[in-house]
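Structure first, sequence second, as always.
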């Protein structure tokens, strides 16, 4: 699903003025020349293709052929008991343990048995055991808690 800060490449065959890279804004909207401003957040690339095609079909472009692909995903965030908390670029197939490794690993105080994960768009954290691979998605917030001695 697309979301704020994702970057998409829109190709409209035969229309170089419309073809280009566009970023989804904080409100979940994307602005495409001649098609206008439209909702993109929560859509798949195929759904956005159909929305752009529909907008361009209204006496703007005859039989538009539109392709949408993701150029860059929004980042994920990791904080708590890791050596380098912060914002990191997302890649497909990323797991929580990959994210911890990107952040320099656990600190000596880290609770290495569970992770607190708040999915993008969700108001609440969920707790997961770290003994299984847990996938991370764009915009997720990962928090590694402190263990009690």
């Amino acid at each position: 699903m697309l979301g704020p800060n994702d970057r998409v490449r829109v190709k409209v065959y035969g229309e170089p003025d419309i073809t280009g890279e566009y970023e989804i804004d904080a409100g979940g909207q994307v602005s495409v020349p001649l098609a206008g401003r439209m909702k993109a957040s929560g859509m798949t690339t195929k759904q956005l293709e159909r929305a752009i095609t529909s907008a361009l079909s209204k006496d703007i472009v005859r039989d538009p052929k539109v392709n949408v692909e993701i150029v860059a995903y929004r980042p994920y965030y990791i904080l708590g008991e890791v050596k380098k908390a912060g914002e990191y670029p997302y890649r497909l197939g990323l797991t929580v343990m990959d994210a911890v490794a990107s952040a320099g690993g656990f600190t000596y105080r880290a609770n290495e048995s569970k992770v607190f994960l708040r999915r993008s768009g969700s108001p609440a954290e969920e707790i997961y055991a770290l003994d299984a691979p847990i996938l991370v998605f764009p915009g997720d917030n990962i928090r590694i808690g402190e263990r009690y001695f």
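Margin note: The mean pLDDT is 94.
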